[in-house]
């Protein structure tokens, strides 16, 4: 394997086949891949099992006593370590539980669960028997869960009686029951894990008790699957109200994650990696569950928040207590900590133990936050960029390849395997430093999505706007020094506390309110969450705001999309600024909401609306 970033990058571009076949040697294969890229995905024809690579092979190598998972749960006061041997047993039994209810290779299993070890066992158990998991983030409401159930058509739905969100206990079962009422698809069973905080009611015949099913399950072995067989479906926000089911194949995923753990994050087997995210997001899939375990590291499963569980020191105490070597979180988490502890008192009190680097992703790491974190932690703070579709970082500073070059505000350099270009609207390259559409040459490297579930057309569309390239939907520039700078989206997606949301989808929900004639939702800047959605609604003729309307709209969005939408601001206005052709000037509204002094645009049809919006924002 090449030693320096430049060598590795050059080889990945000049001979991707050799580069990735070499990287594939880091895994155990039942049948080694006959070739790298095939029209069907990476390594098709090769056979392996992802769970074997994440768990069993480490036990077989004599590392059964090494810690695989540290469950750190400040919200329940629990701390528990699971060795690789124990993990193997738990996963094999969980797989036995699924198999006993007829789950076999290719069947889908929806997992709607909190950050507890059983969630991780369930994901690995699916991988073990070749079933396809689809984890749904707990912050989504019943209708969103229902959409995912109808698209994935799972045999089983796995859930727990509750999640714990900071100080709040969130019962999951009523939500699951409601989602199953809404969904057209019937699952055969719901397997329910009763947590001590909430005893959820069971529906006779349909619901099964996790603990008793698990107790009677026999462990089952790993099955061999084709590298191109799907490992999971992960739904993410698209620009329409319909979520996109990103499909990840077994082989490319395992190879990419194994490679990234070593070469991007610089991790060695036995070291401790912590991604403070949620298993419901891609970061959780790749770097709480699969990446660290495939690499033979210890992973930290943290059930808590950066602040409030119980305070802004919880991250540093966890890092210190467990000897975390490399830490990964979203910039919003650092901003939340900084707000509570601007002087870094907790950091100095606890120290950071063995920590050698902090990686940030999920949204652009603003230079101010990067500088603060670097000053407080006295170590590299590395912004890196990727998306659910890609599955692993496409731009980063590859610490494991000895690269330390960083520039606050930039996400680093193209990761080996990814060839970037920045194009204008016509598909022509912009000059270095110029802003345009950030695209990546096709085919994408191993680990990136192979299709969208039930939506091959949607998948292909991402490769059609710019011939030969995958359209990321992000805008940015690459500077003279080669640093990639990702500045924002070219579509209606926004990033709220590192969570990806579609303003179009929120608008669709608000438009269903009987009093609303039309609306616009924009992402306004927020000091902690990066962005928050702000809604502007115009009432139907004859409808009045009785003072409750904003609250009703907020509740509606919460019930339809979920608390994760974090919609707190709704403004009822007489009219929205529009162009003469009737297009709502959302960019103008966004700038006004950000407190900018916006000149009246020449294309505007109704200039008086600018003043209307300004007055409303001032609360007049
Ligand atoms: N289950 C149920 N509800 C959830 C949930 C879950 N898994 N996750 C979030 N929610 C709820 C929250 O309780 C909150 O509800 P509320 O409106 O009743 O308070 C709402 O969804 C919004 O949550 P969030 O955006 O996370 O805001 P927060 O105020 O609870 O916390 C941060 C703010 C910055 C501390 C938090 O968002 C954070 O830690 N972000 C890190 C982001 C991250 O991990 N991103 C993944 C990519 S790396
Ligand atoms: P998700 O699919 O939820 O991971 O969201 C991916 C989107 O988040 C990207 O397309 C970007 O718009 C944004 N994003 C993630 N990480 C970064 C980053 N490091 N810098 C800038 N934007 C980011």
Automatic annotation (TrEMBL):
SUPFAM superfamilies: Acetyl-CoA synthetase-like (SSF56801)
One Pfam match: AMP-binding_C
Domain (AMP-dependent synthetase/ligase): residue spans on this chain: 58-443
Ranges of residues in domain Acetyl-coenzyme A synthetase N-terminal: 5-54
GO function term, MF aspect, one: propionate-CoA ligase activity
Xref: Gene3D superfamilies: 3.30.300.30, N-terminal domain of ligase-like
Ranges of residues in domain AMP-binding enzyme C-terminal: 505-583
Family to which this protein belongs: Belongs to the ATP-dependent AMP-binding enzyme family.
Full protein name: Propionyl-CoA synthetase
Name of the gene encoding the protein in the UniProt record: prpE
């Amino acid at each position: 394997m090449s030693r320096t970033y430049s060598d590795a990058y050059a080889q990945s571009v000049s001979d991707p086949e050799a580069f990735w076949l070499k990287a594939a040697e880091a895994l155990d294969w039942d049948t080694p891949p006959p070739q790298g890229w095939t029209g069907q995905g990476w390594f098709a024809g090769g056979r392996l099992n992802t769970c074997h690579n994440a768990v069993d092979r480490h036990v077989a190598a004599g590392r059964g006593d090494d810690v695989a998972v540290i469950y750190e749960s400040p919200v329940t006061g629990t701390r528990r370590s699971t060795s690789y041997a124990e993990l193997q047993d738990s996963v094999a039994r969980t797989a036995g539980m699924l198999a006993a209810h007829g789950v076999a290779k290719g069947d889908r299993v929806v997992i709607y669960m909190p950050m507890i070890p059983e969630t991780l066992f369930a994901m690995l158990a699916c991988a073990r028997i070749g079933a396809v998991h689809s984890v749904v983030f707990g912050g989504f409401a019943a209708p969103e869960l229902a959409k995912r159930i109808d698209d994935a058509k799972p045999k089983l739905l796995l859930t727990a009686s509750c999640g714990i969100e900071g100080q709040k206990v969130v019962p999951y079962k009523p939500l699951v029951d409601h989602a199953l009422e809404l969904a057209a698809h019937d699952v055969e069973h719901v397997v329910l894990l009763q947590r001590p905080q909430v005893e959820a009611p069971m529906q006779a015949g349909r619901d099964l008790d996790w603990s008793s099913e698990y107790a009677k399950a026999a462990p089952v072995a790993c099955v061999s699957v084709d590298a191109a067989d799907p490992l999971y479906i992960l739904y993410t926000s698209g620009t329409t109200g319909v979520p996109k089911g990103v499909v990840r194949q077994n082989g490319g995923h395992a190879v990419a994650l194994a490679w990234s753990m070593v070469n991007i994050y610089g991790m060695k087997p036995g070291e401790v990696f912590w991604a403070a995210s949620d298993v419901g997001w891609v970061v959780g899939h790749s770097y709480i569950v699969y990446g660290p375990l495939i690499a033979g590291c210890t992973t930290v499963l943290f059930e808590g928040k950066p602040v409030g569980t119980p305070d802004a020191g919880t991250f540093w105490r966890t890092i210190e207590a467990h000897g975390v070597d490399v830490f990964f979180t979203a910039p919003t988490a650092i901003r939340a900590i900084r707000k509570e502890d601007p002087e870094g008192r907790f950091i100095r009190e606890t120290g950071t133990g063995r920590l050698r680097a902090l990686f940030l992703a999920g949204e652009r790491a603003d230079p101010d936050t990067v500088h603060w974190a670097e000053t407080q932690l006295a170590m590299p703070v590395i912004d890196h960029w990727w998306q659910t579709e890609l599955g692993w970082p496409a731009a980063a500073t590859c610490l494991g390849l000895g690269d330390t070059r960083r520039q606050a505000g930039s996400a680093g350099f193209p990761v080996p395997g990814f060839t970037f270009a920045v194009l204008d609207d016509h598909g022509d390259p912009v000059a270095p430093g110029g802003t345009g559409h950030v695209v990546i040459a096709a085919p994408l490297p191993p680990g990136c999505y192979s299709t969208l579930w039930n939506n091959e057309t949607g998948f292909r569309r991402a490769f059609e706007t710019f011939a030969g390239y995958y359209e990321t939907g992000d805008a940015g520039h690459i500077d003279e020094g080669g640093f990639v700078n990702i500045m924002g989206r070219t579509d209606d997606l926004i990033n709220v506390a590192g969570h990806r949301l579609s303003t179009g989808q929120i608008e669709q929900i608000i438009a269903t309110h009987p009093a609303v004639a039309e609306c616009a939702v924009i992402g306004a800047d927020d000091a902690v969450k990066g962005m928050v959605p702000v809604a502007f609604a115009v009432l139907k003729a004859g409808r009045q705001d009785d003072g409750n309307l904003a609250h009703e709209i907020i509740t509606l969005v919460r019930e339809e999309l979920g608390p994760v939408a974090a919609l707190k601001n709704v403004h009822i206005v007489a009219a929205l600024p529009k162009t003469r052709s009737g297009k709502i000037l959302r960019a103008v509204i966004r700038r006004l909401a950000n407190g900018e002094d916006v000149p009246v645009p020449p294309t505007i049809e109704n200039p008086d609306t600018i003043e209307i919006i300004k007055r409303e924002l001032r609360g007049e």
